[in-house]
Design a protein that fits this description.
With about 325 residues, the chain is α/β, with parallel strands linked by helices. It folds into two domains: about 140 residues, Quinone Oxidoreductase, Chain A, domain 1 (Alpha-Beta Complex), CATH 3.90.180.10; about 140 residues, NAD(P)-binding Rossmann-like Domain (Rossmann fold, 3-Layer(aba) Sandwich). Helix content is about 30%, strand content about 25%. It has ten helices and 15 strands. Strands 3, 4, 5, 6, 7, 14 and 15 form a seven-stranded mixed β-sheet that branches. Helix 2 packs across helix 9. The mean pLDDT is about 95. The structure holds NADP nicotinamide-adenine-dinucleotide phosphate. The site of NADP nicotinamide-adenine-dinucleotide phosphate has 29 residues, from helix 1, helix 2, helix 3 and helix 8.
Length: about 325
């Protein structure tokens, strides 16, 4: 089987395409023939040894796939041929991957393989952040930093479904054009407009109720200063590379909460709630409320380019590898 293998930590160009043996399937696992695998920012960090968890090579990256069950372990009650989303601990950038049965979600043909492979990390994280961490209520305003990115796209779409007033902050004409295609209510060009002033203007001087922050750096504090009384700033990631240091007096005078969001950890500690959220997210797709169309579809050989897009601020929307 064709796989993308990290044999040495470093730039994505060091990744190798190798012909590997199909993985073994233990009693509790299924073997998935992969149609599509999701590519994410953390993959780009992982292959460089710069992620919060460092894995020694050789390894096959990739933590979200969609495809069909080809083999089942003896303790697995799933049918061969079932279409599934899988969350492998590693190994998703490959034609076949074995996944623990608790991390396999059966889906219908209404969910395309591209949508299925796009769903877990970006939509799972964003839904967990809005629903469980911010406890968002219909009618609240939502400022989305990095609005055109993978997390940003999910936040615009899910914010709309959850009845929030979405405001996407983006940093270029191309990114602005992209978010206009989504159902976003307002756009802030934070490369040339004052984020705080514009966010206040768009909320009649009140400030925003919730901020989704996958960017970090200096925009986090600007966004925090743009929040309303009882606001929530959801800390998702630091794509800008710098971890912000925030003056805590802002939280006091605004009654604002800074809320950490680590979806991967939560899926391990709360499998029942994770399954509930997946069921709701798949339901949004099946009912036609959520249309996930990945913007970038790459062949296996193009994985280094896909990963470099994240590192050079070029990624827009969801990125997928097609097998
Ligand atoms: N906490 C969790 O559980 C969790 C789950 C998934 C992802 N994450 C994290 O969320 C972050 C974003 O992931 P993503 O998939 O949305 O990535 P992405 O598609 O690359 O989006 C990141 C956005 O950040 C903005 N940005 C500002 N400065 C940047 C820089 N120097 N380099 C790159 N981007 C920059 C970009 O928008 P502008 O150019 O418009 O500013 C870009 O659209 C990552 O740090 C990832 O590790 C966390």
């Amino acid at each position: 089987m064709k796989s993308v293998v990290c044999t040495k930590l470093g730039n994505p160009e060091l990744l190798e395409i190798k012909d590997m043996d199909k993985p073994e399937v233990s009693n509790n696992q299924v073997l998935i023939k992969v149609d599509a695998a999701g590519v994410n920012y953390p993959d780009a960090l992982l292959v460089q040894g710069k992620y919060q968890v460092v894995i020694e090579p050789p390894f096959i990256p990739g933590n979200e796939v969609c495809g069909y069950i080809e083999e089942v372990g003896k303790d697995v009650n799933l049918e061969i041929g079932t279409k599934v989303i899988g969350l492998p601990e590693m190994g998703g950038f490959s034609e076949y991957v074995s996944v623990n049965k608790s991390l396999v979600i059966p889906i219908s043909e209404k969910v395309t393989s591209f949508a299925g492979a796009s769903l877990p990390i970006n939509y799972g994280t964003t839904y967990y952040a809005l629903k469980r961490r911010a406890q968002a209520s219909r009618g609240e305003s939502l400022l989305i930093l990095g609005g055109s990115g993978g997390i940003g796209t999910a936040a615009i779409q899910l914010g709309h479904i959850m009845g929030l007033k979405t405001i996407a902050a983006v940093g270029s004409d191309e990114k602005e054009d992209y978010v206009k295609e989504l159902k976003v209510d307002s756009i802030i060009r934070y490369d040339k407009e004052n984020l705080k002033e514009k966010a206040k203007e768009l909320t009649d001087g009140k400030g925003v109720d919730i901020v989704i922050d996958p960017v970090g750096g200096d925009v986090s504090e600007q966004a925090l200063r743009a929040t309303a009384w009882n606001g929530r700033l959801l800390v998702i990631g630091f794509a800008q590379g710098e971890i912000p240091k925030i003056p805590l007096n802002i939280t006091l005078v605004k009654g604002v909460s800074i809320v950490g969001v680590w979806w991967g950890r939560w899926t391990q500690t709360s499998p029942q709630e994770t399954a509930e959220d997946f069921s709701e997210l798949v339901g949004f797709i099946e009912s036609g409320e959520l249309n996930i169309t990945p913007k970038n579809i790459y062949a296996v050989e193009e994985v280094p380019e896909a990963l470099n897009n994240f590192l050079t601020r070029k990624n827009i929307g969801k990125t997928i590898i097609k097998f």
